[in-house]
Design brief:
single chain; alpha/beta; four-stranded antiparallel beta sheet; 17 helices; 12 strands
Length: about 500
């Protein structure tokens, strides 16, 4: 019998704290304690990579690197890399929103200071660890650090606009820039060391508190990333290394013109010729980083929506076959079991379901998608099968309260029939339905536990700015919220 469990979706950036952004420091540990005290066994987060355009964790500069903005500076004081008074000149940050640019300019200057101190003093307790880290991560780390250093050197233009020989990774140019930018390269390697050191400390604490961390792995990588620059042959690019096709989805629940993400799509033939080595590295890396990994846009492993480069919307695309079956089969040969979750929302075909079920991966059900049709809708809690993970909503949805308040017409009538008059009472009932369902796992965004409206929405798909900024504060988390969460978890054997 599957063990029933439950948890909360909250990205690291949304944690409270003094650094203008959530970090891997004491507030993250405190959040694990909160989960433990309320009987929660799952903490779902978003991708951890260094964010690029629009601050989206789904558009990162690397599929392997961690976001240096999540490094906790107070922990660096404990490590002796910063002094207490280094943090005294902290700007006044918003406690309710991440001001990314403001955080970045303040934080990077202090990270630079910590790096210089490390270089000067070479603290024994850290130096051995650092060299071990470099040795372990050499297969991706130097390329990433060179990418970030070159990005700064060329005034942050896209890598396709760099000097010709470096863009095409000619050996002589790689050697030249590795020497020219050696100090900046070392700085970025050191930041990754700090990030992963803090991350694994947090993960170990969560393990001791019996909290599993659900990570999130985007199917695609950003076109402006170390991954594409380093592995151009694995993507559909022209002779000038510009994408010939872009990823996205056709018109759906979120958008009448579809979603055009702009990411280059995979060259599946070339990936197969290389025995899917890049995918194997990525999957192994992620299952080491997290207890379970949600594959975002899982359906793209069966077939993907390919839009010709230059299109303004995702309407004029076509479905093309992918080789996800071969990827998952090869990975399964290398690990005991697949700790993966299939994000199987959107246009799902029997072939996608077959791929998910072949490898016994749990899929997702979302209550907010449940009221567009009749009582047989697969997203209604009374229709869930045990092998699924049930959500009130995801990071892409409005908060449940915001959604309830925005309902109109037939959908509003159906919701009222099922949950009662849209409002806070219906919102609590929605959470309870998810917890009471037969789905093996039940999750909700932190905003739903706090009964917050649309202002607390984290992301609106199809919009380029104003996303990913929301943060919660402990004073909003009342005794009644803790009590409600603990009670429904015990009541429904989660």
């Amino acid at each position: 019998m599957l063990e029933r469990n439950s948890g909360i979706i909250l990205h690291i950036t949304s944690l409270p704290g003094l650094e203008g952004i959530g970090t891997l420091g004491k507030e993250a540990f405190r959040f694990v304690d909160f989960l433990n005290e309320t009987e929660q066994k799952l903490w779902q987060i978003l991708p951890l990579g260094p964010v690029g355009y629009g601050n989206s964790p789904y558009q990162c500069y690397s599929a392997f690197a961690g976001n240096p903005l999540l490094i906790d500076l107070h922990l660096l004081v404990e490590d002796g890399l910063l002094a207490d008074n280094d943090l005294n000149q902290r700007p006044k940050f918003s406690s309710g929103n991440v001001e990314f640019e403001k955080v970045e300019s303040w934080k990077y200057s202090l990270l630079q200071k910590a790096f210089e101190k490390f270089q000067q003093e070479k603290p024994e307790n850290l130096e051995g660890e650092y060299h071990l880290f470099l040795k372990e991560h050499t297969w991706w780390l130097h390329d990433y650090a060179l990418f970030m250093a070159a990005k700064k050197h060329f005034q942050h233009v896209h890598w396709t606009d760099w000097e010709h020989d470096l863009k095409f990774r000619k050996k002589k140019a790689l050697r030249k820039y590795s020497e020219l930018l050696s100090e900046e390269i070392e700085f970025h390697k050191f930041l990754q060391f700090l990030f992963f050191r803090q991350w694994f400390r947090l993960k170990e604490y969560a393990r001791l508190k019996k909290v599993q961390i659900f990570g999130d792995m985007p199917l695609y990588v950003s076109g402006n990333s170390a991954d594409v620059w380093t592995n151009t042959e694995l993507f559909m690019l022209d002779e000038n290394l510009s994408p010939t096709q872009a990823g996205g989805v056709p018109p759906d629940y979120f958008s009448e013109t579809g979603q055009l993400w702009g990411n280059p799509v995979f060259n599946w033939e070339r990936l197969e010729q290389r025995d899917f080595d890049w995918w194997m590295a990525r999957l192994h890396f992620n299952v080491h980083l997290f207890d379970k990994v949600r594959i975002d846009h899982f359906r793209g492993l069966e077939s993907f929506w390919s839009v010709p480069a230059g299109e303004k919307t995702a309407i004029n695309g076509q479905w093309l076959p992918a080789k996800g079956y071969q990827v998952l089969r090869k990975f399964k040969e290398q690990v005991d079991y697949l700790p993966l979750i299939a994000e199987d929302l959107g246009v799902i075909t029997p072939e996608v379901e077959q791929l998910r079920d072949e490898f016994k991966l749990p899929g997702m059900k979302v209550l907010q998608f449940a009221f567009g049709s009749n009582p047989a809708n697969e997203h209604l809690p009374h229709n869930y099968l045990p092998k699924f993970i049930a959500y009130t909503g995801t990071h892409d949805n409005d908060t449940t309260l915001g959604w309830l308040r925005s309902l109109k017409g037939e959908e509003r009538k159906r919701v009222r029939w099922y949950l009662g008059r849209p409002g806070k009472r219906a919102q609590k009932k929605a959470i309870e339905w998810i917890w009471a369902s037969s789905a093996q796992s039940a999750l909700m965004p932190m905003q739903d536990l706090l009964q917050m409206g649309t202002k607390a929405r984290l992301n609106t798909p199809g919009t380029a700015s104003g996303n990913w900024e929301w943060r919660f504060s402990w004073r909003k988390l009342r005794t009644k919220h803790r009590k409600f969460l603990r009670e429904i978890t015990l009541k429904y054997n989660r």
